[in-house]
Structure formats: C-alpha cells, structure tokens
Amino acid sequence: MKSKKESVNRRGFLKGAAASAAALVATPVAKAQEATPRQRPAAVVPNEAQLAADTGAPRRVEVERIVEHPGSDFMMDVLKTLNFEYITTNPGSSFQGLHESIINYGGNKAPELLTCCHEESAVAMAHGYAKIEGKPIMALLHGTVGTQHGSMAIYNAYADRVPIYIVIGNHMDAAVRPAGVNWYHSAQDMGALVRDFTKWDDNPASLGAFAGSAIRAYRLMMTPPMGPVAIMIDSEMQERPMPGPRPRIPKLTIPSPPQGDMAAVREAAKMLVAAQAPLINCQRAARTPAGMKLVTELAELLQCPVNGNGERMHIPSRHPLAGNGFQGYSTDLVLNLEVQGGGGPPNGAKSISISSLDLFMKSNIQDFQPMSQADLPIAGDAEATLPSLIEEVKKQMTADRKRAFEERGKKIAEAHSKQREQAIAEARWAWDQSPISLARLAAELWPLIKNEDWSLVGWQGFIGGWPGRLWNMDRHYHYIGGQGGGGIGYNAPAAVGAALANRKYGRLSINIQTDGDMNYAPGVLWTAAHHKIPLLTIMHNNRGYHAEVMFVQRMAAQRNRGVDRAHIGTRLIEPNINYAKMAETYGLTGIGPISDPKDMAAAFKRGIEIVKKGEPVVIDTITQPR
Amino acid sequence: MKIVLLLIAAIMAQAPAQNSNAPAGPAGPAGDARRGEGYYMKYGCWECHGYTGQTGNGARLVSTALNANGFMNYIRNPRTNQMPLYSAKVISDQDAADLFAYIKTFKRPPEAKDIPLLQQIINEK
Prior knowledge:
The complex is a heterodimer. By secondary structure, chain A is an alpha/beta fold. Helices cover about 40% and strands about 15% of the residues of chain A.
C-alpha cells in the first residue's frame, strides 16, 4: 500500500514545480509585493448545470475521443517489415504518436526503444551498431531541434558510408498546429536540414506514401555506397485514426550491389599480374565480414602487401602481407579499393581504383576529397567486384608469375616479421612513466583479453594506433575505424552502439576513450547502464583537446608570440574531470583515476570481470598527451 | 603522416652535423635543469614530446644526440614544418639552455628485451 506521502507525490511535485516556476519568472515582482498579505486564489464556483453533470450518474466514456487504430500503428507495421532490432531516440512531441505505437502496439520488441540523452548519441549509437552488425537500426529524431542535434552524427555516418535509418517527426499542418513551441519544432522542408549528408529523404503526405517511402529508403540506404536516409513523419498522420482501407506495404528487396565492368576487371587483373611490386590500398572496401576474407585472398594470390586497416579490418594485423612491403619495395601499381580521393600513386606508378563513390556523390560538403588519379578507374562496389577480380587473376597467372609472386611474398613476410618486432619494441618508451603511456596501456590490456572474443569499438587514431601494433586483430569486429567525417563526439556513443551489437554474441567490447570526445554527450553512459550494454571503457585522459593544443602552439610560434598560452581554450583542467565519479553518477562502475602504470593490470582485470557479467565499466587512466 | 613523424624522429635523434662529437662552437649560456623543468611545461614542449620526452607526435628528446648548440640551432631553425620555430623573442637563449639541461636529465626506459610483457607479445604468432 502506498504511503500517504507517496500518494500525493505527483500532485505535490506539480505544485512545487509551479511554485518554482513562478518564483523564477516573478522574483522581482514578488519582492516588490512582500509587504502585501498573500491571498489564495478563489476556487471557480461551478454553475448549476456543471454541478448537476459532475454529481449525477457516471457518464459514459467519450468514445469519439479515443483513437484505437492510429496511423502510427500502421507505421509500426511498416517498420516491423524492416526488421530493426532497436530504435534509438531522445523523446520529442513531434513523434509521440509513433513513440506510443512502438512501446504498446509494437510491444517494444523487435524493434526495442533505447532511451538516449542526446540525438547525437542516438545517431552515433546506430553508426557503431551498423559497423559491427552490417545492418542498420533506426534513429528516431524530434523535428528541427532534435534533427539539428543529431545532424553532426548523421554527417559522420554519411562520410563513413554507414547505413542509418532516420525517422524525423514534424507538425506539418499549420492549421491545427498549436501555437508556441510546436512552431519552433516544425519545418516546411525538414529534410533540408540534413539533405547534404543523407543519401535520400522524403516527406510522405499519406500513410500509403509512407509505406512506399519507408521501403524505398531502406533499399537506397543499403545499396553501395551506403549511407543514412531520412523519412519525415507528420504528427497528425501519426495521431489521427487510420483513414480508409489499409494501404499496401511494398515488399522489401535489396538490389545486388554494383559490380565493376568485366572488361575493366580483366584489364585490372592483367595489370596486377604483370606488376613487379603491386600494393593493395584499402579504406572502406570491407563492408561485410566477407570483405576482409576477399582482400586477404587477393593479396595471398598476388603475394603483395595490403595497406589499410585504418577504417575497417581488411587483413589480419599479423598477416605477413599486412603493411607496405619491405624497405626498397618500389611500388609500381596501386590497387585502391574504396579509397576516397587521396593523392596519386608513388612516382611513376600506375593505379587502379574500384569504388562505388563514382556512382553517387553530392556537391556541397567536400567529403569526396581530391579526385583520385587512377589510370584505370572502375565504378563499382569493391567488395562485390573482388570475387570476379580474384577469378581473373587466377586465370591470367602463369607458372612463371606464380614463382615470382612467391619470391616476392617471402621477402615481404621477412620484412613484416622484423617490422612487427620493431613496432612492439617501440612500446618501451615511457614504459614506467606517469602519466601512463598509451603503448603500455594497450600492452597491459592485451594479455587480459587475448583469450576472449573481444572487439575494439573505439577509434585508435588518437591513441597512437597501439592496439593495431600490439594486438592480434584477425576478425572484422576486432576494429571498426573512426568517425568518418572527423566529428568529435562520435566515439563514446558509437562504442556503446557497437557494444550493443556485440552483446548478443557475448563479445567483450573495449573502448579506449578520449576525454574530449566523452564530454560532448556523456549521458550515453547512462544509456549503457540503463539498457545493460556491457562495455569496458578505458579513458585516455590527457585532459584536453590535444590536437588543438598542438595546433595553437604551432600558430603562436609561427607568429612569434605567446607560446606559453596554447592551453587557453584547449585544455580540460582546473578543475580536472574525474571520469570514475562521472561513471558512478550515471550508474556504472567507475574505477580510478589511475596514474601509476603498475596499477593498470589489476584495474583492468576487475573491469573485465564486471563487464563479463553484463555491465558497463569506466576506468579512468591519466595518460601521456599522445 | 606516420612516415613524416618517423623522419622527424630520425633527424632529431641522429643530426650528424650537430651531434655531441662534433667540434664545439662558441659556448652558449650554461643551463639550469631545475628552471628548465618549468620551461618544458610553460613553453609547451610536453605537447608534442610527452611529459618525459619519450612519447607523442614529436621526436624522442630522451635519445637526442644534439649538443647544447645543436639544440639551440634546432629550435631556432627546425628542419621540418612539423616542429614550430621558436625565436629568441619567445624563448631566450638562457631559457633554451635551461630547457636543454632539463632534457638531458631524461632517463631512457628499459630495453624491450628486459620487459617480459613486450617479449611475450613479440613471441606470439
């Protein structure tokens, strides 16, 4: 039985809230009136007719005000056909109809709604999820304000060629739109806010049109080059009863990805077989687990080096062909697979490009990079084209060439072995120093995870690439790259999204997290705790936006002034931020801060034990700048 | 980028024309390591070289072969655009000498062969 105190909680809360609001708004007036005795507002006395109605026999429910079959239930039926596992969202009134349908009509299962504390987190979680799982989830955004909050994360996913299905609420009909905040949160053309960095958007005017748009958006999103799409949903369309007969839901079929022209593929194979020192250069070629196997197969066939585990895993990190070859390896042919722009090949070398980016590009934002200088550009998806290329190389490879390839491969393997040993030995620098070196951090973590089914879900660009140098990465989920568009604020939420995808496989998700990025929207820690998403977050806490510290330092030196002031506007000090306490506040286990390298192993062990029980953990380590 | 940084490291570490075996030029001011420690932080050396001259994007100062004159020459006219140029207006000769005295106190880490954890990783296949 509820106590009396509890039973009046809501009323008391509202009363308190009203009083607080009044105090905030009316403080100066209230002060002026302090001398005047307070009067309670008089209750409105009902007239006779109202009194009779209120005290007579209980009335029937006003059935006409109940909407048992709202449009948003049909929207839910459509979305169910797309098989989303989750919907990430921060709540907003422009989609309250669909929100209710998801949790009640849809039973909050397949898809399940995940509560996020910021739209950027909602979208970035979907970004990380898709890179592990190879398929999208849905992000549900509020009109105008929520969409602008989420837009940075949408841009990152667009630049990273990652599919995210975005649904945005809008109060379209101005005739019924209540005055006030809903007008601020509505737009004539909501899609314009994100059109420069989505593959497609639509603003369907009926439920039938929604069904068609929803399916079309999914197809376009999943056709390489992949990217986010956005569908606007009108609040009235969600909330009104279903009009007329139920619209047809089109069948979802995904087009086969575009392959390169076979004549061009044969020419590429000829060039690769004839080359003395070819190099395979990859950026986002592996968009499914099969991609890494295909790139590795081609490299083994040609016995040539593979450069490019920066954005996706393309070849196991300890594979003898991983890297740029040996000293003096004079590359004469570069095969670029889904490489976005970039400079030309080394002096005198020729190049082949296989990329779907030639099939789809937008004009405004310059994410497309300088135009690649390919001797043989092939428009097509690299992963889809690789099987044909591999077959053509096999056909064109003679016994003589095969012997030459094997000789080449031996030299590359020898060099790789030496380079690997040297790279690991480099980890000794600042080994015993405090703050902790990033090399030691990665080295201490490795023996604790190497026998687990682990997944590094954060970017290693700001941590010296040490996991890639020290750890054995040989699965597609061992590394998923970075932001795409270079927008900071991606890493913490994308890691949570990737960990969400890893959860059902029982993988140990690990994120070495920069402090600057964490502070964009740390509420994602609460989302991880609330939805029980196991993730080991280890803070690379260098107390600043360190790249910018260096940039400002260089600028001051160039201008011959103020070289002792680069910390202004760049460092996160005075006060220092305690991430263990931050984690605890959000309901996670927080460990640290740790500044002595000798204390790391015990903390990591403890953190891993907790994560393996299904919970997120944050370990704060105070680190060297880079 | 990494190649460029390695190149910088190599230049700073070797600097054959200015190493400590080179004939000494006119002597600069004597350095004070204690003052240099403060300048290392104040002038932002730590930003690219780490707190102990061993990490970061810049050269490893702990293993520099430069002598005092070489160090002075290097910060006044770096051989790479990655390293900012510091004139005498922003870092005086005395401050630079103090910085160098401090940098020379940096202790090298153990060799990789003496770190069991790294040996264990090297021996993994």
